[in-house]
Amino acid sequence: MKEQLIEYNSAILISQENFLDQGIEESVIQSATQHLENDIEEVKVSFQNKMLALQRIQIMDALRNKLQQGDEDSRLILETMKHLVLLSQTIIEYQQKIQEKEQQLVNIKRERLSLKAYGGQKLQQIQIMMKKQKEKQASMDSRKTEKMFASLEKERQMTTIIQNVFQNIIVGSKVNWAEDPSLKAIVLQLEKNVYV
């Protein structure tokens, strides 16, 4: 029984090693396959580019030979080529005009942004000036109000003194002011005003 277990263990270990080796080989094969596929793709692209260049050279050679013949077809080809050159020049001119217009647009946008920033600064300065004027006006108004209150307080004190003098005159004259209704009203009014 022990011998069978040892054989099974050794068989399992061998199969695990083969499995690990097989996994490593598969990743190497996949990497190599990917490399080869990339190389094939690059060769295909290179071949197509070379074929296009060769075809262009062949077409140019055929056109050159045709133009040297001097027949009606060569004249039409020459006119077509001149027309193509004229169209190409027109396209280049329009592209230059477009670039100029785009540059003008960029300059206008920059100027607009600078004017906007300048306007913002001026607006901020105006707001600061208005705030200072309001503070100055409020300060002046508060000083005027303080002067008015001081003047009013002075007037009130003077009025109180005058009322006290009148009251003392009436009391000092030993007139019975309680019997005279007009005098009574004056004295009572003077007392009210003194305590107000």
Automatic annotation (TrEMBL):
GO terms for molecular function: kinetochore binding. Pfam families: CENP-H. It is found in: Chromosome, Centromere, Kinetochore; Nucleus. Residues 3-191 form the Centromere protein H C-terminal domain. One of its GO terms (biological process) is chromosome segregation. Residues 84-118 form a coiled coil. GO terms for cellular component: kinetochore; nucleus. Keywords: Centromere, Chromosome, Coiled coil, Kinetochore, Nucleus. Belongs to the CENP-H/MCM16 family. This is Centromere protein H. It comes from Lonchura striata. The gene is CENPH.
